[in-house]
Amino acid sequence: MKIIDKNNISELKKQKNIIILGNFDGIHLGHQELIKRGIECSEDTEYKTVLYTFKTHTNQNIKLLTNNEEKILLLKKFNLDYVYFEEFDEVKNLSPEEFIQKIIIDRLHSDKVICGFDFTFSKNKSGNTDLLKKLGQEKNVKVVVIDSVKDESGEVISSTRVRKYIEDGNLSEATKLLGHYPIIAGEVVHGKKMARQMGFPTANLIFENKVYPPFGVYGVYVKIEGDNNIYNGVMNLGKNPTLKPGELSVEVHILNFDKFIYGEKIIIYVLEKISDEIKFNGIDQLVEKIGNDVKYWKKKVKDEYGNTDKTRKF
Ligand SMILES: Cc1cc2nc3c(=O)[nH]c(=O)nc-3n(C[C@H](O)[C@H](O)[C@H](O)COP(=O)(O)O)c2cc1C
Ligand SMILES: Nc1ncnc2c1ncn2[C@@H]1O[C@H](COP(=O)(O)OP(=O)(O)OP(=O)(O)O)[C@@H](O)[C@H]1O
Questions:
Q1: What pLDDT digit, counting tens, does each position of 134-161 carry?
Q2: GO molecular-function annotation terms (predicted)?
Q3: Domain hosting residue 277, numbered range
Q4: Which atom of ligand 1 is nearest to the CA of 241?
Q5: Does the Cβ of 156 fall within 6 Å of ligand 2?
Q6: Which residues lie closer than 8 Å to 260 by C-beta, 6 or more apart?
Q7: 157 ligand 2 Cβ < 6 A
């Protein structure tokens, strides 16, 4: 899977491409179905698959489930040929006709696109799937539109619903709609080194402006880039009221692990909440509380999450 943008699309000109259209925030089960269908359309043909998404989400007023790096990590498990990141500013004022001609046909060298039932495009979202089909016919671009993918209660799966579930702390529903655990990924940065002195070293990630579950302590899986192991861990997400008041952080204590991983890229899979963040008056109480969180999670791992693959929705 190659990551491309408008500055390196020469390969696309040498071949036929099927374009899979959308924002794809979170890569939920609806997105996954669309991707699979796009890949199916390309099978046994000379077409290459290009997932078309944006460097910045088309709605700039919302917090996102996934930054671009996280999106790429989640897309890696599919057999896509390319992920193309568009500058939204460049296309947001195009008319529907211009979008098809300038972007789909001229830029991406395509005559086949696939999107979901509610896909909209062009200036003020003036283009919908009917218009896309109509323009496609005029310009010899085949348009495939897939039906809505719904959850078990019949409600359409969307990034908006997943965002709400995560913000409300309903991780099990979010995980169901995503088809994978919510992830937090990034490079390990230096913390205050206090956690290590307390006996619980933590890998710190930068706290971003994205959708997080409510502040607190969570049981997680951790993957480190270049390391095939899946580690168990406890993550503290929040304000660190006792030791680092006012500083927002994401940090994870990886169980049975004692390597320095500063600068390494990690992915945290958030499983379930363990406890709230509490403000203590002394360090001893804090150390005892963290110890209890760790003990609780170790037992839970042993009893429930274990090392069986069936609970792992990566
Ligand atoms: C499992 C776990 C649970 C934590 N629970 C709390 C808590 O309840 N209250 C709190 O103020 N800080 C809590 N923290 C945060 C630590 O007190 C502390 O701020 C942090 O680990 C210091 O990080 P640093 O040395 O990596 O910068 C917790 C940390 C971990 C790893
Ligand atoms: N449940 C679904 N079933 C089928 N296709 C979907 C579903 N959800 C999204 N898609 C399609 O996947 C592509 C990317 O979707 P996009 O991320 O833009 O929408 P979304 O998931 O509904 O997000 P939001 O809730 O933010 O509108 C689009 O073509 C869209 O129509």
A1: 999 999 999 999 999 999 999 999 999 9
A2: ATP binding; FMN adenylyltransferase activity; riboflavin kinase activity
A3: 182-305
A4: 11
A5: yes
A6: none
A7: yes
